[in-house]
Every structure is written in C-alpha cells, then in structure tokens.
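Re: the multi-chain job from yesterday

Posting the exact lines I submitted so nobody has to dig through the queue logs.
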Amino acid sequence: MGDDRDWATVLGVPDEDREDILGAFDASVFEGRRYRHLTDARHGIERGTAIVDGRVVRGFPSIPRTLVLDPGIAEHFDGRLTVEEKRNGYNVRVARIDGDVLGFTRGGYICPYTTSKVRELLDPDSFFEAHPGLMLCGELIGPENPYTPHEYPEVESAAFEVFDIRDRESGRPLAVDRRREFCERHDLAMVPNFGEYDPAEATDAVREVIGDLDREGKEGVVLQSMDGTRQLKYTTSATHRADLEHAFSLPFDYGRDFVFPRILREVFQAVELDRTNGESRQRAQELGEAILLPAIEAVRAVERGETVGEDHTVRGDPDAIEALLSHLREMGITLEIQRDRRVGDERAVSFVKVSQATRDNVENYLDGQLIDE
Amino acid sequence: MGDDRDWATVLGVPDEDREDILGAFDASVFEGRRYRHLTDARHGIERGTAIVDGRVVRGFPSIPRTLVLDPGIAEHFDGRLTVEEKRNGYNVRVARIDGDVLGFTRGGYICPYTTSKVRELLDPDSFFEAHPGLMLCGELIGPENPYTPHEYPEVESAAFEVFDIRDRESGRPLAVDRRREFCERHDLAMVPNFGEYDPAEATDAVREVIGDLDREGKEGVVLQSMDGTRQLKYTTSATHRADLEHAFSLPFDYGRDFVFPRILREVFQAVELDRTNGESRQRAQELGEAILLPAIEAVRAVERGETVGEDHTVRGDPDAIEALLSHLREMGITLEIQRDRRVGDERAVSFVKVSQATRDNVENYLDGQLIDE
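And the result, structure tokens for all chains:
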C-alpha cells in the first residue's frame, strides 16, 4: 500500500522544497523512534500530518460548522447523508507502522498515553493485517483522559470509538457503509448512529436529535455524505454552555477566545430553534450564568490561595503514564500531582494542569492593578 | 502663553525627526484651515494631539481603570481625591487658536458639529480672553449627538460639561479647586461632583455612589487627585450591560472586542460588591440577556431585510451639519438618512450609520455559509 514511497512524493512536495518543508515539522521521539509532525497547517499540508520512518500519516481535516441547519445542510450536501453523534473527547488517528500500532493526537504527536490506550482497548491487529495502508480515526472518550475528560455513563475509564477510516497517506475516507462493515468485521466500536437521510428531510431529523442530545448534555452531531467525503458539524446549547463554563473557570487562559464564537452559535440557534421569546430569554440567562458564575468562582479560588487549573485523571501502563507526564511538562505545562497510586499493574494519577495566566492576572487585579484603556 | 513656540519644541521632537513624525499625523482641513492630528499614540505623543497653524493642542490622556475599589483606590492615590460623575457622551477638548474657538474629538479631529455646538453652548470667550493658553476638557452629552447619543432627562439636545482644564500645549491639568473656580467665574457647566475624600474613606463612598448611579442607569465615576494629576475610573453594572446591548445589537461590528473586558468588569464587581450568590446569579442572567437578546434581534432584523446600524440625530447650523455628514461619509461610513428637516434656522437630521459587517455576516450565515475551525 505505498509504504515504500517517499514522504515528499506522497505529500506532493517538489524535491527542491524538501528541506524547507521538513523544517516546518516538529521533531519528536517515541519509543526510540524519531518522527516529525506538523502542529499547524503549512505549505498546504494539513495540521497533524506526521512522518514516521519516512511513512506519512495524514492529518485529520477540520470539519466545517454551520450556524443554521436550514439551509446549512441543503447547501452543503447534494445526496444522502448519515447523522452520527459528535463525541466529547479528543480526536485520535491510529496507524500501524513497521508492525507498531501508534496513536496520533490532532497535532500529529504520538502520545504515549493514547498509544497505550488504543493498544489496550482496540486489539486492532486483525484490522491492520487486512488493511495496513488505512488508519482508524476516532474519539478517545471517558473520564480518565489527559486532554478533555468528560463523563459518559457507559465509560468507566476510557474508550475509543471510530468515526472515520481513511487512507493513511492520502487521507481519503472510506464510504460510510464500508467503514461500518470494516468496524463490525474487526470488532471496532463506532460512534452512535442516528440514521441516513436526504438533505431535505435531514433538517427536521437533526433538530429532533439535537433536542435529545441537548437534554442529555451531549455534544452534537456530525453529518457525513455516504461516500465519506463531505462532513458538517452542529453542536448543542448544552455544549456551548459547558465550553463557556470551562473556559470561564479559567478566564485568562481561555475566556477571550471562547466567548464570541459560542455566543454566535447560541444566537443563530435561538433564531432557528426557539419557539418563543421566553425560550430565548431562558437561553440568554443560562448563557450569562455559564460565563459569569465560573469566573466569579475562579476569582474567589485565587483569593483563597487555591490552585486553579484543569483536573485530569489518567490510568494505565506505568511507563506510558510517566512518558505522558514528561511530555506535558516538556510542553511547558505546570502539573500539580494530587494523587498517585498503583491499581494492580497500572498506575493511576490525578493531577491539575496549573493555569498560570488566570492565577497571575486575577492576583494582580485583586491587588488593585490598573487597566489602561 | 507660548503660542509662538514651534510645535516640535513643544512636543519635544528633535529637529531631525520632524518630517518623520509629522508624517504620522493625518492632514485635514477645517474652515479652510489645514491642520494635522494623530489618531493613535505614536512616538510617545498622545493620541488626539493636533497641530493647527503650528500651535499644539495636546491629546487627552487615557484614564486608567481599576477592577476593584479596594485596594484599587488606595493603591492609586496617596492624598485626598474628588469623586465626579463619568458622563456618557464623547470627550471633547475646546481651544482657541487665532481667535477661533475649535472643538476637538478624542482623535484630534476638529469636528464641525462639535465646534458649532461648543460655540453655541459655551460662549467661552470670557474664558479664553483670560486664559488663551488653556483648553477646556469635557463631555458632550445628550440625545442629539453623532457619536454616543444617550438620554439625560435634563438635556434636550446636547450639552457640554467640563471635567478638566489643561494647558493646551503641555496637557498639564489645573488643580481641581482652581478648575471649579474658573468654571464658576466663566459660567461653564461642570460634571456632577460627589465630594472629596481621603483614600481610606473613598472606597465606601464610591460604593454608595456607584449603587445610586447603577439604579439610575448612569455610567460611573472618575476619581481625581486634588492637584489634578491622577485619575481613575470605575463604571456601573448598568453601563457594562448597556455597552454589551449596544455591541451585540451589531455583533459583527462590535461584539468580539466588547465582550471580554466587560465580562471581567462584572466578574470583579461581583466578587467585591455582591452580598449573596443570588445577587451574582441575577447579575449573570442580566449579563446573558444583555448579550444574547440584542444579537437575536439583530439577526431577525437582517432576516426581515431591515437596515441595521446606529441611530443618531443631530441638530444645528446647516453648514455644520453638512460638514459633519460629509466627514462621516469620508470616513467610509454608509449613512442612511431617515429624516431631514428645518427647525427655524437649524437643520435636524436623523440618520443610521449602516453596519455593513453585521449585515453581510448575518446574511451569509443565514444563507448557510460554513465556518471552518
């Protein structure tokens, strides 16, 4: 499946630009193996693209969002589409290179924790024996998660659900039916599926699904054309609020970038989905609470001298846990370990990613520092 | 009073930098008189500084803000201070050059409307006869206002209230008592005054004043050391909400820049002034309403095909009105005239400053345009 082709040929990079473009990639090491990955889209190559032993693992494309279901869906799709749940975890690509299964984060980093989890959760060998040139694209979800922990009642620690299967080099997706067939055959969990629709009927169906997901506090949906090539996402009000609550619990780390786009999503969702002004007023009040109350609590926590940051728990192979903690520290993140214990063969660590910007800014403003405008 | 000194000497510009620095100034013409003004601080010279016939009119300094009264006030002042109302209009400097009274906006533009208004409202000749080297700094308030119209029950059309008197060239302020004495002697209206305090007692006094102003929907306070040299501002929750309501009535013109700083003001004000969690929840709900409801209404207005923008009414000398409208159009603002009539000798025009960014963005998103994230 093209494993021996040169990375530059695969990525369409002219020979004379090789060095230049390779310089845009970060260099890292995983299990003694040097590799390169692109943390931001550059030179027309997707963010997250990695080169491991000369082999290309193509980045996962960003999925566009619509602010209105009608006419957003009809504008974007001209044939049947499938509606699947957008799960709240982190995007992982799983590929096998030289016999080793590896887990890549969105930015193309081979994450030791993710790799260890997918090896443990997936048993993907039967899949990669049959399809060495493909990669599994999915969401790593669950409460024990170093990036975006989120509770799903059915997930105790962490789980991996496939939402796409793509050619590792070209990034070309399988058709939806084929992807499902492959997952069933190789016993790979898939994201929940809400059915297939014509564009004209999809709007009503998605409205109903979104209403249910919103009540359950779930994230939203991804729509995909049956050939796999077109995707579109749309999220619930519960997610907009949860994002804002999280962002404003650390206002100086996340607040500014988070607030405006999520307000816009709520504005257009209200115009499209609210049936009364009372519903919009309720939505507005909940938006305000999602913004202000966590920020007030963050200021009070800093005032009390408490550490502010994001709480995570991870559990797994001790070496993988150690490598994850080292990686986070190398990224400049200050960790405060809250609990560190053995559970059988595994190590379970609860830690806070300390939010320096929020702590420092809040302290300064509480001390009377002025703002010059 | 130094009127014959060279502008470069007054501004401390070395001879060899003259041309370079002059190039940073915009060139304009008012009543046949060419002048230059600095729309942004550059080369250590304040924004709004103007050079008219070689004479310098110094820019008005920005007043720092505190997010907490305690210890913000005590940190910033070491002696007695006066508490005055911050009025909601636009900042104007009035100076006399070669016998002509001129009104300068914050950016140093000689505004024909402002100039005509201050000539009509102030009768400042007795002041400038006595003090040709000073300038009056004040707020032009009232509903008939091309920049920030705001209702004050006592103001029918427009009024000018002095909050500072400064040396026109150096920008050095008069002491507060002197400023008040000069205003009384020359019959110049002043901003409302809430008394003088030691820093230690000012916090409680300002809390009480802010509570009253908040209930009346007024903007806030400016604190000033008795020698005039130190200033500090603090605003009401009613103002944060009114700003957000205005900004989110035109979300793509103002929303992004407005939202985060005002949320911060509310966060710290809540931590300092709210006595119960219920009060903070109420504050949060009102914040959410101030953000979301005007934006929903703006989207609905665009959906109905209505013009969105800021409504203004101006009234005055027909030549000044014509010059103002030309100026706004030259600034690239699209005006939609709603009403244009004569009232005695005066011309009264109601117009909308059309908000292209909000109209275009809302139309596009309603048409299903995708957002790539």
